[in-house]
Write a structure and sequence with these properties.
Blueprint lengths: L18 E4 L8 E4 L19 H15 L4 H18 L3 H5 L2 H6 L7 H26 L6 H29 L1
Antiparallel strand pairs: 1-2
């Protein structure tokens, strides 16, 4: 491959993400075309991923659970600990005993409190930011316009609403 201006000759090429440039006779400049995609379909029998050891399996399970973004880290750590205990009790590798980390993670219900809690804290931070931007002007003697007051009232109403939603989610989870 010939390096062009601004490119390194030894730069890696990723087929899925890079557009291949090629010249066609009669055209000025490069014509961009998608690089050929990888063959579709399941991998061949020999191309299956290698079995994971217990540490790699546990790390992958933790990653899958964290990517769902609906479980707190303490719960993820508890699930991984329980999975390790089950594997140790059975005396078999985790991949053999529990299957793939993805299928094992699918068996756990979403934490219905985590999202409302995160939303409530995010809105709280936003309202505090709004207040922090307006407070110095008020202390310096500026008068708030009617729009500023309306904006602050709406922000406080949304803040109260999100915390009430969080409390309702906690009550529903306890049932």
């Amino acid at each position: 491959m010939v390096a062009r201006r601004g490119e390194r000759a030894d730069a890696p090429v990723h087929r899925e993400h890079v557009l291949a440039a090629r010249r066609r006779p009669g055209l000025r400049g490069p014509r961009l075309a998608r690089a050929p995609a990888a063959p579709a379909g399941p991998p061949a029998r020999g191309g299956a991923p290698a079995a994971l050891d217990d540490d790699a399996w546990a790390r992958r399970l933790a990653g899958v659970l964290r990517l769902r973004k609906d479980l707190p880290d303490a719960r993820v750590a508890e699930i991984v600990r329980d999975a390790r205990a089950r594997g140790a009790a059975a005396g078999r590798p985790l991949a053999e005993e529990l299957g793939s980390p993805e299928s094992y993670a699918a068996g756990f219900q979403k934490d219905r409190v985590a999202a409302p809690r995160r939303r409530a804290w995010a809105v709280t931070a936003l309202v505090l930011l709004i207040l922090a931007t307006r407070l110095p002007g008020v202390v310096a003697g500026e008068r708030l316009s009617a729009w500023d007051v309306a904006y602050l009232l709406v922000a406080v109403v949304v803040l109260v609403w999100t915390w009430l939603d969080y409390r309702a989610a906690v009550r529903r989870a306890r049932r």
